[in-house]
Amino acid sequence: MRANRPILSILLWTLLSLVTLFPIYWLFVISVKPAVELFTTPSVLLDTVYWKNYVKVLGDDTLRRYMFNSIVISTGNAVLVTVLAFMACYALSRFDLPGKENIFFWTITNRMAPAAVFLLPFFLLFTQVFVIGEWKLYDTRTGMILLYCTFNLPFAIWTLRPTIDAIPKELDEAATVDGATTWQVIREVIFPLARPGLAVTLILTWVFAWNEFLLAATLTSFNARTITTGLSEYVTTTGTEWGTMASIAIITLIPALLIFSVVQRHIVAGLTFGAVKE
Amino acid sequence: MRSNRVGWLLLAPTIAILGIFGIVPFLYVLYVAFHQWNPFGANPYMIYNGANNFRRLVFDNEFLTSIAFTLKFAFFAVLSEVVLGYFLAQLFMKEFPGRGLFRTIHTLPLIVAPIVVGSVWRLMTTPSIGIIPYLLKSWFGYDLNIGRDATMAFALTVIMDIWHWTPLVTLTLLAALVSLPKEPFEQAQIDGANRWQIFWHVTLPMIRPAILATVFIRLMDALRTVDEVWMLTGGGPGAATRYLGLHIWKIVFPKTDYGYGSATSVIVLYLTLVMCWLLYVALVARRGQKRAS
Question: Topology versus the membrane, per the UniProt entry (chain A) (predicted)?
């Protein structure tokens, strides 16, 4: 499979894409079927399209609010986490801090906790500890942005560290000799070279925050409720409104896709100067 | 070397946030783990009962089988994802028409929330209404019933996980491959190395840290999967897909047995930690040796 045989690549990718797209196509199929038709004999192709679910979802103010919350929380959290992780990884990679490998490992342990039991202490923290007068951290976007750091920050630090470690130390030493400050080294030397890694970190932390369900379901009620939690309100024990849920899910793909296509370009930006040849 | 104070300053916000939202809740859970506490039970107060919860765990058959199933699930899912993800990342390194489009398509599964993924896969596979059993039946005459067939239910959770998370591996490894320097590859080619030798002696050592980090993340996430499997199989049939995250969920929510649930979580956390630590030490130590020689 060399570069001079693009047909083969395209064939392979088309096949893979079909597999990748099928469940998403099916999600769309569910979203444009009336509830009764879901429980009849299935067929791969659509014969009639039923848009009522979308009309209902798009006209819903509450869902628009949830969508806005999701965008603010995911973007806020992804940016915060990427910046903090970038700082932390630079420190871990370039300074001779005592016990730094242990700190590095400790960060990841925060992602290992099974969520179910930790909901309770988080709930107590949010409703009883972080309270200033009338104000509570509970059901605020700030609270969710901070809380999502528990699983996103370790992730970001672990994905970014190899990238920063791989940047030759000689480069920043040379810059330091030339009189650059730490801030200048980070901005002028490390940042441009770490761009693919930073882009991936930003995308993936954004995705994790966007998709998170358990914590948002417990720690928000209305003001800061996210769309993922909002759509799960249609999944109940007495019966699920599959169509409504699926149409919300399809709509939530759009902002996610936009952010993806903007940031993804930076991943391969590095290809122009550091391509691997086989 | 510059003064360490700058280094600590750069690390401080991370340590502060993870300290507050990581260590404090953990200590709380640890405290509850030594108590008998069912807030909605006959006696809603916390009663100290020493290590009884832990003693009960050792003989808890459900818990022990859950560990075995979870490990099996994590092993198959993560191994396939890393192999497949690496292969796909390599394919993306080559220029071909439509690469950008295919890359976008390939990352789509990531942006579908786990709870939605579980729902869709469930609707696709439920006997008599799902498209997959229907096609399998009419094309191959095969009966797929994940409500009864434990092996198929297990396989399906693995396949769903692969579908959902391989793009993550592809993206992280793609970023790692993209930022590799060019010279070692050119040098190897001049030296007449074949493709396998280049992979084994040049590419692999350089991206090993990235692969390691990805395996860790995926392993941890696979060990605490809840939403997707909950929606797809609900843990069944029997306990075949009742993975640890779901197992704890079932102790804490339908049964509201907080004390026992906390003890289970502490042990699960401990096992995950030890496993990852051993893996980490083994791999990092090996890397260190190589560098020294």
Answer: Multi-pass membrane protein
Minimal Cα–Cα distance from A192 to chain B, Å?
Answer: 11
Closest-CA distance, A18 to chain B, in angstroms, reads 9
- The pLDDT tens digits for B237-288 are 878 888 888 888 888 887 788 888 899 999 999 998 998 888 888 777 555 5
Whether domain B65-256 has CATH 3.40.1190.20: no
What pTM did the predictor assign? 0.88
Query: What ranges do the domains of chain B cover?
Result: 65-256
- B47 vs B38: CA distance, rounded Å: 10
Measured at the alpha carbon of residue B224, what is the angle toward residues B222 and B229, in degrees to the nearest 5? 75
Tens-digit pLDDT profile for residues B134-187: 888 888 877 777 778 888 899 999 999 999 999 999 988 988 888 787 788 888
Query: Span A42-46, mean pLDDT?
Result: 74
The answer to whether the beta carbons of residues A70 and A220 sit under 8 Å apart is no
Residues of chain A with CATH 1.10.3720.10: 60-274
> Do A213 and A232 meet the contact criterion of CB atoms below 8 Å apart?
yes
Here the tokens at position A17 are: 């894409």
Query: Which one of B119, B135, B187, B270 would you mutate to disrupt binding with A, by most A Cβ within 10 Å of its Cβ?
Result: B119
Q: Which residues contact A32 (CB under 8 A, 6 or more apart)?
A: A46, A49, A50, A51, A53, A54, A243, A247
Superfamily of domain A60-274: MetI-like (1.10.3720.10)
Q: Which ipTM value was assigned to this complex? A: 0.85
